[in-house]
Design brief:
By secondary structure, this protein is α+β, with helices and mostly antiparallel strands. It has one domain (42-145): minor pseudopilin epsh fold. Helices cover 39% and strands 21% of the residues. The strands form 2 sheets. It has a 4-stranded antiparallel β-sheet with strand order 2-4-5-6. A two-stranded antiparallel sheet has the order 1-3. A hairpin with a 6-residue loop joins β5 (126-130) and β6 (137-140). It is elongated and about 85 Å long. It starts with 15 loop residues before the first helix and ends with a helix. 19% of the residues are buried.
């Protein structure tokens, strides 16, 4: 009956330790090579903070049965608190209803005042849409939102 062990003592396979070292080195190389790409760019951080703020107001309104508002004048401070830099950040708010107001209102039925927020560093080129009927929040791709 054939055996798994080699009859020649000079032939040997790789050990578990050698395999672990190779896997660790490959992991280290992947981490170093991809590490810079894992952190989102500043625009993505701002986008996430805006969506979080708007979504939080909507869910608070629905849960509590009251009107919740997001004031655009305090958005930069809230975004900075969320960990995004705001040094060159430009935010422009355009609520659909409530002319002259810089607030988005969220109602207990899930609807909102609607409108959009345009933001970017230097030149605002990303748009976050707030649907007035459903309260859904959408981000337009850069190429679609650039003027």
């Amino acid at each position: 009956m054939p055996t798994l062990a080699s009859s020649n003592p000079t032939e040997r396979g790789t050990t578990l330790l050698e395999l672990l070292v190779v896997v660790a080195l490959l992991g280290l190389l992947a981490w170093v090579g991809l590490g810079a790409n894992l952190l989102p760019p500043p625009e993505r951080r701002v986008e996430r903070a805006l969506i979080a703020e708007l979504s939080s107001a909507r869910s608070t309104s629905v849960k509590r049965g009251t009107v919740a508002t997001v004031d655009c004048s305090v958005l930069p401070a809230k975004i900075e608190t969320a960990g995004a830099r705001t040094a060159d950040l430009t935010i422009e708010c355009f609520p659909q209803f409530g002319a002259g107001s810089k607030r988005f209102s969220f109602y207990p039925d899930g609807s909102t005042s609607g409108g959009f927020i345009r933001f970017g560093f230097g030149h605002p080129d990303t748009i976050v849409l707030v649907d007035w009927l459903t309260g859904a929040i959408h981000v337009l791709p850069r190429e679609a939102s650039a003027p």
